[in-house]
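Here is an idea for our session: we take a single protein and study its fold together. Once you have written the record down, we can walk along the chain together.
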Amino acid sequence: MPAAAMPDDPSQAQHSRRRAAFFDRDGVLNEDVGFAHRPDQIIWMPGAREAVKRLNDAGFLVFVVTNQAGVARGLYSEEHVRTLHRWMQQELRAVRAHVDAFYHCPHHPEHGQPPYRADCACRKPEPGMLLQAMAEWPVERKGSFLIGDRDTDLQAAQRAGIDATLYRGGDLDAVVAGILARSMRGSEKR
């Protein structure tokens, strides 16, 4: 089961359904430096914080879904992951943005010891983290999407029944603006 952290208001599940944006973390929101687990290792990707704010302002739920095999490998703990996510949330709030919930998978099928050495339904390309967010929050699948930097991210989105975009670097806010513009054009055609 994926680990979730810090939903701002899970009671929002009682409200009407909303589109959601799912972000992979390392390589999308921040540079992938290999097993990042401390704030001093985080270098935000260009336009990352602005992209989250754009989605917040557009009424999207925003989630981070990240494989964290460093936990299974014994490089850091789940508390390190949660602490880093709290710091990232503070950084986002400084620009009036927020992530509704962070989900991480601490498992790996070949490394570590139980309970972390495990085949699980949450490690991407499996869709477990996305499905958990969809169960815990009022997510409207139609119009929801994931942005990831690996094929496993895109496969998880496909298995969860949402669109996906492969991020190859550059201004993440421009990527999100393009997705939203295409979405608006598509809804106008109906």
About this structure: Confidence is low (pLDDT under 50) at residues 10-14. The chain is about 35% helix and 15% strand. The two ends are 38 Å apart (CA to CA). Residues 20 and 61 are 4 Å apart (CA to CA).
